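Standup notes, structure subgroup. Blocker cleared on the glutamic acid input:
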Amino acid sequence: MVVSYTHDVANAYQNALAQYDRAVRKMNLDENIAEYMRWPRREFTVNFPVRRDDGRIEMFTGYRVHHNTVLGPSKGGIRYSTAVTLDEVRALAMWMTWKCALVNLPYGGAKGGVIVEPKGMSQAELERLTRRYTSELIPLISPQMDIPAPDMGTGPQTMAWIMDTYSMTVGYSVPAIVTGKPINIGGSLGRNEATGRGVIICMIEALKRQGLANKPMKIAIQGFGNVGSNAALYAYELGFTVIAVSDVNGGIYNENGLDIPAVLQHYKTNRKLENFPGADNISNEELLVLPCDVLLPSAMENQITERNAGQVKAKMIVEGANGPTTTEADDILNERGVLIIPDILANAGGVIVSYFEWVQDIQSFFWDVEEVYRQLQRILVKAYDNTAAMAEKHKVDMRTAAQMTAIQRVADALNTRGFYP
Ligand code: GLU
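Run returned:
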């Protein structure tokens, strides 16, 4: 059975373009440059065979989109999900361009995806799928050209297979071909926790600036994958009250707070959140409109839409997912005075530590975790400052400010490089 977070059919790429157009309208950009940055540079579609364990061959479709490469090699994750479409990958690639530019990484943006339900495959099938998809991607990826990473439905083991397939093809080991790898083959300490940790760092920055730094806070988190679970754990360790978490099948709620380490153990044993002792089972729709102070949508796109934005009770939304809020919902929430810390800032912790991993691999010199966390904090807080200053200067919301900051950096670089030929 395919379960999804929402039945909403909003198109993520339309949303990404609408956000872009909104930001550009507030800027004084050369219109040729504005038009250039609106387009994905390259789009790759591949249909490829995978042998199932019973001997059957099944065809799969995968994508890789390089949105923009003005600032450097393109960077972005690979997603395995039945909801993958070319438009979704385009949107996610465009958001990677702005995310990398906003946090000042020397990268452009890319994204990949395969239309597949990874939970419906054995490890051996997933390995064959990953290796074949990687071999089809060889002309498009390299440490200097395009560096994949994990996203929904993929993780360190997927990255290990990609690294091995690429390395076997070229004839020597190339750890810098992917980030988010296991530590024992060149992964970085702290990468696994980085996105969730970054979400909480951004939430704390926002709370500080609102004079709420030491107030008790109730947090609801949609999504219990890499981002949601690590955000929940870090928030819990810092003493915040996490009242609800959910995965694709639904969530659990206790208004007095959940014991997150115990929830993680329950999830590991039962492979679901449902029926956690002392908590009520709730749906994803209910989670988004729970009475709470901060909402962390950390699952996927198009979760907060014009349908439910009016009912959101949180005073602050920190976007762990990419594109969880539609532009229509943005309008409703901004109108209602809900502060939104946008995805390209809030979830940039992942790609920031991916950058550290790539640097460590290239130098073959590895950092301790304290150094990783110190540099992560420094870069995120600086990006937060830049965004807040832009918002203040142009009297715009944080999403528009983040997009404007990023778009301006890519535009300046493009202007310096010039159009070829
Ligand atoms: N997939 C993650 C994102 O959406 C990480 C990308 C990366 O580390 O390259 O930001």
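Discussed briefly. The pocket of glutamic acid is lined by residues 75-77, 149, 151, 179, 322, 347, 350-351, 354 (CB under 6 Å).
Next: hand off to the docking folks.
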